[in-house]
Amino acid sequence: MRAQFVFSEIGVGLRRNLTMTFAVIVSVAISLALLGGALLAGQQVNQMKGYWYDKVQVSIYLCNKTDAATAPACARGAVTGQQKREIKADLEKMKVVDKVFYESSEEAFKHYKEQFPDSPLAPSLTPDQMQESYRVKLSDPEKFEVVSTAFSGRQGVHSVQDQKDLLEDLFNLLSGMNRAALFLMALMLIVAGLLIVNTVRVSAFSRRRETGIMRLVGASSFYIQIPFIMEAAVAGLLGGLLACGMLMSGKYFLVDQWLREQIPLINFIGWDSVLKVLPLVLAVGVIMPAFAAFLALRKYLRV
């Protein structure tokens, strides 16, 4: 096979269908950018889960004098010193419990004022209205039900709250957005595939005379088809490179320069994660258009 001829045919094909080739490059770039973005978003969610779930605590709120009149669980009155000691001792005996921290009503009042300084309730609150609590760090955050079952309804206990439930809604939202990005990516890949098929059909039709002559002089089907397949692969490669540029720009400008400063509590994924995704983006960018062109040629290339 003469490589010079193949490359010259690729150049001719790309120039003849410049508008459609540009449309293929853009659609492939957008779809691959969505693919890479969805993969990175999935890694970000998993990293956030690992980071925050490791810090999840179970809060056991104890009854105070105010709760005795308003909360059914505290109908027997405020928690006693004996009850607090028994609760702490039972917590420390549990295998799923890693550490136990005690927060007094004064500490709870101080933390509330620090976290919600502009709350309209802050001026009217007093330390004795705040609940004492035990903050329990679990060795396995999935074992919350063990603690909840053991202490919910116990005398002196107002309620048991798992912080994981507060984070679960956020992670579910992020996962839903990730699935939406994957769906949009699949839709864009279909659009790109249809554009590639149409581009190959137009290119094959415009060069039917040349391909007919090649067949007459004994050229194989693969030799005739390879320039068309390579055209699609080159367009896909350009789209993949553009998608890689979009992903790297998004990482640098959106994540590093803006989100990292706006949301310092989130541990964002690093450049190593981005660099691992880029080869996959390029591979899909080359293989998908080439495969679509191959399927189109089997049906539409008639000489």
TrEMBL record:
The chain crosses the membrane at residues 21-42, 180-201, 222-248, 277-297. Gene3D superfamilies: 3.30.70.3040. Signal peptide: none annotated. It holds the Pfam family FtsX_ECD. Keywords: Cell cycle, Cell division, Cell membrane, Membrane, Transmembrane, Transmembrane helix. The lineage of its organism: Bacteria, Bacillati, Actinomycetota, Actinomycetes, Kitasatosporales. It is found in: Cell membrane. It comes from Streptomyces durbertensis. Forms a membrane-associated complex with FtsE. The keyword Transport does not apply. This is Cell division protein FtsX. Part of the ABC transporter FtsEX involved in cellular division. Residues 183-299 form the ABC3 transporter permease C-terminal domain. InterPro entries: ABC3_permease_C (IPR003838), FtsX (IPR004513), FtsX_actino (IPR047929), FtsX_ECD (IPR040690). Residues 56-160 form the FtsX extracellular domain. Belongs to the ABC-4 integral membrane protein family. FtsX subfamily. It is a multi-pass membrane protein.
